[in-house]
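Hi, here's the filled form for the chain we discussed.

Project: internal
Contact: R.S.
Residues: 457
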Amino acid sequence: MARRASPISLRSPRLSAGLESPSASSTFASVISGPESEEWVKHWSVVSARDLIDSRVVAVEAGTSVEDACDLLLSEDIPCLTVKAPPGATSSPFAGLFDFSDVNAFLTLAATQHTIPPHELKANASADQIMSAARSGHVPVHLVSNLSEKNFLETVPHDATVVSLLAMFARGAHRVLVRSPPPSNDFLGMVSDRGLLSWFFAYAERTPTFRSYLDNSLYALGLPSLHIHSSVVAATSTAQVLDAMRLMSEQGVSSIAVIDEEHGTLLSVVSVTDIGKMVVPSESNQILSAPLHQFIARIRASDGSTDGVDKYPIYLVFPTSKLSFAIQKLLATNAHRLFVTDNDYLPPATYPVSCTGSLCGIVSIVDILSLFAIIANIPDVDPTKRMRQRRASSSSSQSSRSGLASHDFARSRSSSRASLRLSASPRIVATSGDTRGSVSNLDTFQWSELVSPRKVE
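And the returned structure, exactly as it came back:
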């Protein structure tokens, strides 16, 4: 029986400091050199990006209402829409993309607008335009396109390759449109970051040396977000759905960890897709005040409603987990990120296996694609640049007002393990002339009014 090759060793293994790092190229401890990697990149350079298209382009008019655009996302079961440019607005046929991150950002703005002082709302041109449109009874989707600042419109030419895609995704993009051959201005389709990751995993299955590389542990690879501790975005299970929505919007992430308040262990994950698929169809603001543990129970119940099989995705890995295992889990759970937990800690027997360990970091699809981009010698790889910019912008906008309590972790050491404690669950308090109370009072509004207020005839 043939023996399995041992993992390809890495050059100068070390761990990076985290999100503040200016460039992944200087912090990833994953760069390898030699004939193996040269052969990999040679192959990547001849595979056409158009062969990786995993989603069609579904376009909507710029004036389509946000409500109708949300309905289309749900009915078509697609990750995003392409928003046509308003007449005369740009030379490009499209103004941008619209996905569940934008839905989450819009709903958060609508539900918490009363917490924002008028002068701050005026200073934010996008928010001011959206609220003005809402008062008129119609919010066009082009105003909400990329409101999350996560959903930039990125394109590559029809003859682009896998290396071309890596250059885009390694800088924080989540989707890339592939253009049709000139002189056409159309697009052949869309490639997602998950689609590209799936291609690399299939490539590893037929390339033993690359598969051997993927058998290195996350710790050995030194991924930049593996040990970021206090920067992990999380909420306790007793926090409300709107708390999670606002965290995702303000921190510029597509999912957050939901942890046990007492032990700080991972219970589950809530994503912007969950918000879109559960909050939007509910057509009620009451769901915004539901505790996250109830919201998670509803998500799990719906998972088994179509095929009778209950699904309990486990969104965690350990520093000692193989990269190949993390990739498999990302693809199997349809997640953009996994949470990293210390594996020298055993939780109480009453907790499910998904709770194992103390939360200490993340590993995302973009992190992994950035790893491959460095192997391909792509310059200026920086997967966290856009996230840092979003967080800096969010921090600046909040500096003059009180809002969601900080979810910073306080680290305490017990032998060699870092145990993390989350600050108290936040309450979103709306301040207006009628001294509105907590988020639970927002259920006096109807969902239809929140999304697209209608004038009473």
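Let me know if anything looks off before we file it.
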